[in-house]
Design brief:
445 residues, alpha/beta, Aspartate Aminotransferase, domain 1, Aspartate Aminotransferase, domain 2, 2 domains, seven-stranded mixed β-sheet, four-stranded mixed β-sheet, 16 helices, 15 strands, binds 4'-deoxy-4'-aminopyridoxal-5'-phosphate, beta-alanine:pyruvate transaminase activity, EC 2.6.1.18, aminotransferase
């Protein structure tokens, strides 16, 4: 039986068509958050809810940080908006420089967007523009991966591999996309700690796809270094390096979607650095502004930027792409304040230091009923349950609601519970998350 606890009876809930939500189910038992500070939300009834998900993988520095809210209010009073088409203001230039300092290798050129979805589509478009600029106009195909999530634009859902996100729109997806197999292998890797041992051979499928479609037709391979929305699917040891070797051998771009792995989530600025694999393009969003203001960024290598610049006459627009809010001053101010916090509080390093404690606490759940896998890397966890006889996803949803009414926000994706706490987390928060989950798992359907 799912836990039902009506909240906020006075609120009018009809008009908002909620994203990625079972609207009718939610509206019968709404869960409404009113405030947030540090590690905690407070709901509209005044209950405190520990945030084990950093919102939606966004609030890596914890909630409602004064430095960010102050920077935002100061900026909105000073310069609320300024265009960045043939015009500019200093903040995105400063932010791009700061991001270049954090980025791996020479991924120094930064294109600003407003979300992860826009970052994904921007990266795909830059890949096509680059291939055309360097005289490889036939390279128009993309290779994504099953269970991959790159947001909800048409590019992102085409290259992504989430069945439900594609099937309603199937007739209108990008025409030439192939997919690698995902790397989830519970049979061989269940309950592994950190990156799984088995599965590097799945990277070899890339060679087969390239042989089938022809390297001369492929623009880019796009994957999340660690697939979050697809169910916390970790890269097997050596797998990402193999993707890099194969793409380099065939002169194909490698794009890492680091929308959730960026900004300390796996104990380094980017997963690319933690796992020592340098792609040609990195997409980001979410924790770039600590979730406070929407913003995304796409970081590309010098050679991609140069190819686009050098093939166009100096007085023409080199890339016909952009958003009204690219480099928005208020978002940029939020991002700069966020990056200051990450640096001043050493939060990426802190994530790495907490990793072992986090891992050990999570694996105390290994032997509970219906738990078929516990996986972790950085400050990320995926706990997978056998589906209940009531249907796929019912047990995951039941555990999610039980945790919420017991004071901990987790995320359910089917029968997988995902956690990605703010990097400011302390031991007492780990204890609360794990003991709450334990209770929920024991009582669940
Ligand atoms: N890429 C990845 C890897 C993501 O996890 C997400 C969001 N969960 C996105 C892209 C899309 O981001 P947004 O919702 O900001 O468009």
């Amino acid at each position: 039986m799912a836990v039902n606890k009506p909240q906020n009876e006075g609120a009018r809930l009809d008009n908002f068509w909620m994203p990625f939500t079972a609207n009718r189910q939610y509206k019968t038992t709404p869960r409404l958050l009113a405030k947030a500070e540090g590690m905690y939300y407070t709901d509209v009834e005044g209950n405190s809810v520990l945030d084990s998900t950093a919102g939606l993988w966004c609030c890596n520095a914890g909630h409602s940080r004064d430095q960010i809210t102050d920077a935002v209010s100061k900026q909105i009073k000073e310069l609320d908006y300024a265009p960045t088409f043939q015009m500019g203001h200093p903040l995105p230039f400063e932010l791009a420089e700061r991001l270049a300092e954090l980025a791996p290798a020479d991924l120094n050129r930064v294109f600003f967007t407003n979300s992860g979805s826009e970052s994904a589509d921007t990266a795909l478009k830059i890949a096509l523009a680059y291939q055309r600029a360097r005289g490889h106009a036939n390279r128009t195909m993309f290779i994504g991966r099953e269970q991959g999530y790159h947001g909800t634009g048409f590019g992102g859902i085409s290259v992504g591999g989430m069945v439900n996100n594609r099937k309603a729109f199937n007739s209108q997806l990008l025409p030439s996309v192939a997919h690698l197999p995902h790397t989830l292998d519970i049979e061989r890797n269940a309950f592994s700690k950190g990156l799984p041992e088995h599965g590097i051979e799945r990277a070899e499928v890339l060679e087969q796809l390239i042989a089938l479609h022809g390297a001369e037709n492929i623009a880019a391979v796009m994957v999340e270094p660690m697939s979050g929305s697809g169910g916390v699917i970790l890269p097997p040891k050596g797998y990402l390096k193999r993707l890099r070797e194969i793409t380099a051998k065939h002169d194909i771009l490698l794009i890492f979607d680091e929308v959730i792995t960026g900004f300390g989530r796996v104990g380094d600025a980017f997963a690319s650095q933690r796992w020592d694999v340098t792609p040609d393009i990195i997409t980001t969003a979410k924790a770039l502004t600590n979730g406070a203001i929407p913003m995304g960024a796409v970081m590309v290598s010098e050679s991609i930027y140069d190819a686009c610049m050098n093939t166009a006459p100096e007085d023409t627009i080199e890339l016909f792409h952009g958003y009204t809010y690219s480099g928005h001053p208020v978002a940029a101010a939020a991002a700069l304040a966020t990056l200051d916090i990450y640096r001043d509080e050493n939060l990426f390093e802190r994530a790495r230091q907490l990793e072992t404690e986090w891992e050990e606490a999570l694996h105390s759940l290994d032997n509970l009923p219906n738990v078929i896998d516990v996986r972790n890397t950085g400050l990320i966890a995926g706990i997978q349950f056998a589906p209940s006889s009531e249907g796929i996803g019912k047990r995951g949803y039941d555990i999610f609601t039980r945790c919420f009414y017991d004071g901990v926000l987790v995320r359910a994706s089917g029968d997988i519970i995902a956690m990605s706490p703010p990097l400011i987390m302390e031991s007492k928060h780990i204890d609360q998350m794990v003991s709450t989950l334990e209770r929920a798992i024991k009582q669940a359907i």
